[in-house]
Amino acid sequence: VQLQASGGGLVQPGDSLRLSCAASGRSFSTNVVSWFRQAPGKEREFVATTRRRGSSTSYADSVKGRFTISRDNAKNTVYLQMNSLKPEDTAVYYCAADSSIIISSTTEAAAYDYWGPGTQVTVSS
Known about the structure:
0% of the residues lie in helices and 48% in strands. The chain has strands spanning 2-6, 9-11, 17-24, 32-38, 45-51, 57-59, 67-72, 77-82, 91-98, 114-115, 119-123.
């Protein structure tokens, strides 16, 4: 499976961006798709996840209510709609995928087999 993230950019506080993660390869390998981010000098952190089965989603507390993750299974693409962006959202955003991850491990980067190159999001006035 190959993942390609896109949609990053430079925006002002309060603006919106939509990231896309396009997957190629075996669709079952993307049963669980998540977004992580990594700011300079910080560890990679979980942002949001979506599961193909049941279309369930979950979010980090820091983005809950501002970010929305969604997926288009026909296009094998997962989106991250980011609204009300803050300077602390500045980071490189990565999408990650796996065929099966137990719910308790969803937020752990090490649990994912597939990663795409990141896309830079910078929020600055």
